[in-house]
Amino acid sequence: MNVAHEINLLVEEIQRLGSKNASGQTSVKFGVLFNDDRCANIFEALVGTLKAAKKKKVIDFQGELLLQGVHDQVDIILLQE
């Protein structure tokens, strides 16, 4: 899979699992995304896809790298619907 395709799939999964925040943007907790069975089957390297999407300003989250357990409560915010 290419990066652009994986980012599009990531957007779809954030929309499926997330909810609107106070600003009207869709957001999801990293732990929810990471522990979802469908996401686990789609993404070989979820963290890498998240990093690429952040670099392209499709999503935003605090920090540079998200790790399971430690960052489960970090919000991933969708910047482009």
Automatic annotation (TrEMBL):
Q: Which residues form the Costars domain?
A: 1-79
Cross-referenced Gene3D superfamilies, in alphabetical order?
Answer: Costar domain
Q: Which domain of life is it from?
A: Eukaryota
Q: Describe the family membership recorded for this protein in Swiss-Prot or TrEMBL.
A: Belongs to the costars family.
Q: Could you tell me what this protein is called? A: Costars family protein ABRACL
Which organism is the protein's source?
Characodon lateralis
Upper classification of the source organism reads:
Eukaryota, Metazoa, Chordata, Craniata, Vertebrata
